[in-house]
Prior knowledge:
With about 350 residues, the protein is α/β, with parallel strands linked by helices. The chain folds into two domains: about 15-250, Metallo-beta-lactamase, Chain A (4-Layer Sandwich); about 260-335. About 35% of the residues lie in helices and about 20% in strands. Helix 7 (about 250-275) packs across helix 9 (about 300-320).
Amino acid sequence: MAAGSGPWTEPGAFEVAPGVHRIPLPLPNDGLHAVNVYAIESASGLVLVDSGWALREARELLASALGTLGHDLGDVRRFLVTHVHRDHYTLAVEVRRLFGARIALGEGERPNLEVIQEGRVTLAGQSMRAWGAEELHAKLRAAFGEGGASAAYESPDEWLTAAQRIDLGDRTLEVVPTPGHTRGHVVFVDRAAGLCFAGDHVLPHITPSIGFEPLRAELPLGDYLDSLRLVRSHPDLRLLPAHGPVAPSVHARVDELLAHHEDRLAKTLAAVRGGATTAFAAAHALGWTRREREFASLDLFNQLLATGETASHLDVLVVRGDLEVVDEDGVREYRLPPR
Length: 339
């Protein structure tokens, strides 16, 4: 099927390059609406980059889309997963249980996957206390509980490492670690075909959440900015994102994302100058989404993401020397350094 003239979420299998088809799969109650799975017809068999969420509707639509290409779910030989979030990983686990496909995941995701499998996932109350967001933590606990083990997760068959080359017979993919969105996020680069399977690292219309995972990195935004610059150092490639339409240039979008975060850092610094001392207070002072929505208008989950994002920006400002941070009874308070 051609690239499609409707919205990027339209079901089907859309050819984006010879032997590569984009298959959007639905997400439940999610502002992202869909996740792109990329089917690669290679000499070594059918390979999928990412898998979708383990939902009946998603599995049925994936089977239907593969059927238009002359395949079924049993033909999938391998899943190459960009990161461990459930909309990318869990349908791969379900298909493996049914048909025996192999799963590969970045080595950096191992600690967080172990936490998920062992049922040690919580709402990060300690982090929310540090962010000055205990009020939000209480509301989240009342609404969602404290989490726990997920039967949707199992370990991969293979852990992928930096610069590893994946030989698919008639094409080779390079594994590029891109921590930030998660600690073990990777992208897959097909230099010969000029393609970058970017997962959530580079998205065409939005910037991904930073560090939303059980074991949060020390400086997730710093990691993300470094990863953007790393991808920018590669030759420019066609952007195959996990959410949104295919775009012609990875470089162009990376430049926009770097500029966006510099602007966000400036606005976060201004929030502290205006009197905000914690991540939670600064998040209230900032606008959210392209519509510059007020923090209070966001649902609880997105308030959590927004507070974590703000903390990430504040910590980068500390590393840059623009702010100082002190611990006040477990709460990180930010202030301007003496001049």
